TrEMBL record:
<dbReference type="InterPro" id="IPR001763">
    <property type="entry name" value="Rhodanese-like_dom"/>
</dbReference>
<protein>
    <submittedName>
        <fullName>Thiosulfate/3-mercaptopyruvate sulfurtransferase</fullName>
    </submittedName>
</protein>
<keyword id="KW-0808">Transferase</keyword>
<feature type="domain" description="Rhodanese">
    <location>
        <begin position="167"/>
        <end position="276"/>
    </location>
</feature>
<dbReference type="Pfam" id="PF00581">
    <property type="entry name" value="Rhodanese"/>
</dbReference>
<dbReference type="InterPro" id="IPR045078">
    <property type="entry name" value="TST/MPST-like"/>
</dbReference>
<keyword id="KW-0670">Pyruvate</keyword>
<feature type="domain" description="Rhodanese">
    <location>
        <begin position="18"/>
        <end position="135"/>
    </location>
</feature>
<keyword id="KW-0677">Repeat</keyword>
<dbReference type="InterPro" id="IPR036873">
    <property type="entry name" value="Rhodanese-like_dom_sf"/>
</dbReference>
<dbReference type="GO" id="GO:0004792">
    <property type="term" value="F:thiosulfate-cyanide sulfurtransferase activity"/>
</dbReference>
Length: 276
């Protein structure tokens, strides 16, 4: 399934909605995410919690606000959610994929599950397209997920390596946060405002058009081509505030046909707490 687009359109999802192997997941976040899900979500969609299912929350100084869970724990989570190796997984959130949908996509790809897509436009666009909605607390039968691997397969980089990259002219660090956060004008979440030294700002919002949909492959290739032409892909690192929204840009890059570069999961939330 490597040639399958990482993004699925609402009309495409409607066509496959009756597929018994289909698994749809709602990964919106925030203090009222679960209650909002219970009020209204896409039919058959199961709620996934960023903090408990897609992260191992500890002290942000050690791994950031949303560090990855242990590989083996995530594999167990997949089985509990009803995902096996034959499942076709579709993920959405209420932030055009820029919240936890892309993070879940990255994690599934990182365990070798390639049959996974993010819904273009997310919940709002699907609702506008009259996709069937539900208020049931849906679930899928538990199963067992057997991975071919014992560790994450997509490239990651740790804080010590990021520090080296700040002093390496052959490396590039990409910050996908909004420009005011990158510039240190505002910081609504973390304790310190600013950015990692020598990081470039490519805001994730630029992956989307005026309708909140992903830009065309051609447009995204044009957006990122200079970055990828000038640097070895192994020396390109993307990050955000806590390793979640950065995955939106990794998704866009994969959609545009680029190799997926390094993800710094700890991101600004870890870096800024270590006085670097």
């Amino acid at each position: 399934m490597q040639n399958q687009s990482p993004i699925i359109e609402v009309d495409e999802l409607l066509i496959i909605a009756g597929n018994p192997n289909l698994r749809i997941f709602d990964v919106r976040t925030g203090p009222v995410a679960k209650s909002d899900y219970q009020k209204k979500h896409l039919e058959n969609a199961v709620f996934v919690d960023l903090n408990s299912d897609l992260a191992a929350i500890g002290h942000p100084k050690n791994g950031g606000r949303h560090p990855l869970p242990k590989f083996e724990n995530f594999i167990k989570t997949l089985g509990r959610l009803g995902i096996n190796k034959d499942s076709r997984v579709v993920i959405y959130d209420d932030k055009n994929g820029a919240n936890a949908a892309a993070r879940f996509w990255w994690m599934l790809r990182a365990v070798g599950h390639n049959n996974v897509q993010v819904l273009n436009g997310g919940l709002q666009f699907a609702e506008n397209q009259n996709y069937p909605l539900s208020s049931l607390d849906d679930s899928y039968p538990g199963t067992e997920y057997i991975s071919d691997y014992e560790d994450w397969q997509l490239p990651q980089i740790r804080m010590v390596d990021v520090k080296k990259a700040t002093q390496d002219s052959d490396a590039v660090i990409v910050d996908v946060r909004e420009a005011p956060r990158y510039q240190g004008i505002t910081e609504p979440i973390d304790l310190v405002a600013g950015h990692i030294p020598n990081a470039k700002n490519f805001p994730f919002i630029d992956n989307l058009d005026e309708n909140g949909l992903f830009k065309s492959r051609e447009a995204l290739r044009n957006l990122y081509s200079e970055l990828f032409e000038d640097y070895d892909k192994n020396k390109i690192t993307f990050h955000c505030g806590s390793g979640v929204t950065a995955c939106h840009s990794l998704l866009a890059l994969d959609y545009a046909g680029f190799d997926i570069p390094n993800l710094y999961v700890g991101s600004w939330s870890e870096w800024s707490r270590n006085g670097l």
